[in-house]
Amino acid sequence: MKRALIIFTLVALVALPFALRPKADAARRTDDTVVVITPHNEAIRHEYALGFAAWYQRRTGRTVSIDWRIVGGTSEIARFLEGEFSAAFELEWVRRRGRPWSAEVAAGFQNGRLRPDAPAAGREARAAFLASEVGCGIDVFFGGGTYDFERAAQAGWLVETGLTRLRPDWFTPAVIPERFAGETYRDSGGRWVGAVLSSYGIIFNRDSLRRLGVTREPAQWADLADPRLVGEVALADPTKSGSVAKAFENIIQQQMQLRLEELARANPGEAPAAREQRAVREGWLAAMGLLQRIGANSRYFTDSSQKPPIDVASGNCAAGLCIDFYGRQQQEAVRRRDRTERVGYVSPAGGSVASVDPIALLRGTRNRVAAEAFLEYVLSPEGQLLWNLRPGTAGGPQRFALRRLPVRRDFYRDEALRPLRSDPDDAPYGQATPLVYRQEWTGRIFREMALIIRVMCQDTHAELRAAWTAIQAAEGERKAKALAALQDLSAVTYDRTTGVIRERMNARNRVDEAKLARELGDAFRENYRRAEAIARGDGS
């Protein structure tokens, strides 16, 4: 009897993982399957799987399921795709074409900026890859920031979707514009298109703020630098999430724009080009100083962009930086029965531009018809309703309020939808004081910016926190000198970032990149230790 019980237990343990795979079983039972890699959360995956299945069956008479692949944020997805395409093309090149694999081939076939004088093997491999149907076993890339989609398009992982020809009326300034407020909303080559809007803001816990003596609710990014918030600000690692890095870029761009406006008022006769150059450099330093102070207040830099709003809602942190829909979702989740809210969310006026989370078709898809249908559904009027209608409303999600803003402009013009929306007052295309994104200011140093923030605030957090705390206890001239030492940003000026730092990171040498991070980290640690010593009266 005992032996039988042991055998039964072992069988149950082996069978349990298979018993808990309803999605995979469902996928095998449907006529068609679409494999989708995404950073989107479970609520989005649930509603779009249900909505697409119903829409697809009405259109085709066939059943369909989505096989979701979850590997992390967009940065992790990009690294995963790079590895998968590398392995797949090496197999194609060596085994099927009988060609030798070399460093030139490996470096060339995914290089969208391959020079005409690059090694012949690299150029040949690049042409072969772009002409091939080499795939990674995944059909659709859905969600995340535009940076990683632009990289994917440049690498050749994405292919033209055909939607611009199928639905030309959708791709107009009145429906899905190519650009808005300086942001690109769709690829000119048709390889990706924005599916939903994303902006960034501050989530805060009113009870926690009162506990800390903060009576005014946050309204601007600078409010996260309030010294009373030491150890109370929740942040995510910008090197792990393209969306979070975009939020930090918004903060930098706002400081540049504000400085440009200040200089225009103070020096109206200055040449516009010279004024802009000065504003960019000075705004960069102002932004880095602000981010440094916000970082000093942080409790952590998490790998997950979903963690900060959860921790703020639960009271573990008083405030945090987050993507708009994460903030709205947590605000709704903890709303009291009397409709009062202990959690608030605000997008700083003029401090966040609405960018897009794209969708794209990956090279080598084995389920092209169904995959193209999924893209069409997500961008259709029916698919767009899921983003912001209340659960249970006609055409809306069945279970979850997604609290996101559709990319289609016609959604906001439909007054009949207004009473059904989760956020009826949000008008991303009609902001009074929008931040206008200038790609030429920071777009080319996006990776460099994320690395600098990490080494300045995250890798050196213990030293930064100690110095910041000591500075708050200091007074007068000593406090001012300590703060100046803390905010010595000579190692990461705009010119150094666009020059030597960018050059070293563009070399794609992981060893040198790690060395660069260590060098910058050491420079900041020295600054922070010196600032703490000055604040405590132990330094000059």
Any descriptors?
540 residues, alpha/beta, D-Maltodextrin-Binding Protein, domain 2, 2 domains, seven-stranded mixed sheet, five-stranded mixed sheet, 22 helices, 11% strand, disordered N terminus
Q: What fold name goes in the CATH topology slot of the largest domain?
A: D-Maltodextrin-Binding Protein, domain 2
Oligomer: single chain
**Mind telling me the CATH class of the largest domain?**
Alpha Beta
Instruction: Using the alpha-carbon principal axes, give the shape.
Output: globular
With helices defined by DSSP (H or I, 4 residues minimum), what is the helix count?
22
Contiguous low-pLDDT stretches (5 residues minimum) are: 1-27
> In terms of structural class, how would the helical and strand content be classed?
alpha/beta
Quick structural gist:
This protein is an alpha/beta fold. The protein has 22 helices and 14 strands.
Task: Note down, in words, how this protein is organized.
- The protein has two domains: 29-198 and 355-429, D-Maltodextrin-Binding Protein, domain 2 (3-Layer(aba) Sandwich), CATH 3.40.190; 200-352 and 436-535, Periplasmic binding protein-like II (D-Maltodextrin-Binding Protein, domain 2).
- The strands form three sheets. Strands 1, 2, 3, 4, 7, 13 and 14 form a seven-stranded mixed sheet that branches. The chain has a five-stranded mixed sheet with strand order 10-9-11-8-12. A two-stranded antiparallel ribbon has the order 5-6.
- It has 540 residues and is of the alpha/beta class.
- The longest helix is centred in the middle third of the chain and has 26 residues, at 272-297.
- It is built from 22 helices and 14 strands.
- It has helices at residues 2-19, 22-29, 42-60, 74-96, 103-108, 120-130, 146-155, 163-166, 206-211, 242-266, 272-297, 307-314, 324-333, 368-379, 381-388, 410-413, 439-442, 446-458, 461-473, 476-486, 494-506, 510-535; strands at residues 32-37, 64-69, 140-142, 158-159, 179-180, 183-184, 192-198, 200-205, 233-236, 298-302, 319-323, 343-346, 355-362, 405-406.
- It is globular, with a radius of gyration of 25 Å.
